[in-house]
Amino acid sequence: MVASSNPESANLVDTSCSVVADWRDVVQSKSITGIIVATPPASHAAIAHAAMDAGKAVLIEKPLTLSTDEAEMLLRIADQNDSFVMVDHIHLYNSAFQELCRRIEIDGAAVHSISSAAGAHGPFRSDVSVLWDWGPHDLSMCLALLDKIPVEAHAERLERRRTEGGDGETVQIDLLFPNDVVATITLSNLLTEKQRSFGVDTEEHRYLYDDTADDKLTVENNETSQQESLAVDPTLPLARVVETFADGILTNAKDRSGLTLGAEIVRILTHCQEQLDAAEGARSC
User: In whole numbers, what is the pLDDT of the chain averaged over residues?
Assistant: First the structure.
């Protein structure tokens, strides 16, 4: 069953799948055990709340919510209902990123720094900014790789300009993690080509996950400059997410680590948004 107000949605699903206009009909259906929330972010909290209260497992698109209050509320509701909840931080399910994490763990080398860059020409969304649209991906990878929360976060708007498609901007986030690990994230919807790179430096190696390249994961020896492409499973990340969600439902999983991560990312994004708004307000004075 799919809930959609778009009349074209019926053409995208099998004839055996019913399409309804109201998402509440899906949530209350007794034949459904799992709900995938793929709606505008402002509606995530209400739908996920209702789904958990109805005893459903829930998979929520990023960002989890657009406010820390809503994120905290979902954490409480999930605990109260002992719910299985996942957040679709899609790159965590990319085999190239998973192999990067595995290699660093095997090497046993401490991460010194992370440099991440992502964006494209657009999309120019009216409901979320570049920070909230692209930022959850990079933050999820940083937090998952390091398994730590940043002790400092700073955001700066590097550029803003109007284009034919809409208002675009470039934002930089600087994170400081324990043990002086620094992560620099650059996000933009003003690029001419899509970019998705995530570089990790250790003492001996530089690992690069590039989701736009044919070789999605490479490692370079810092001493010899020799570069090697690492083989990864070509299974699409979205297929991995849905499979993990389905397996969790079948095994009656209660994992909420993805929800906890999603809530932490909302906290960081909110802090960064406050900094951007304050800087904008100071410039307008």
Answer: 95
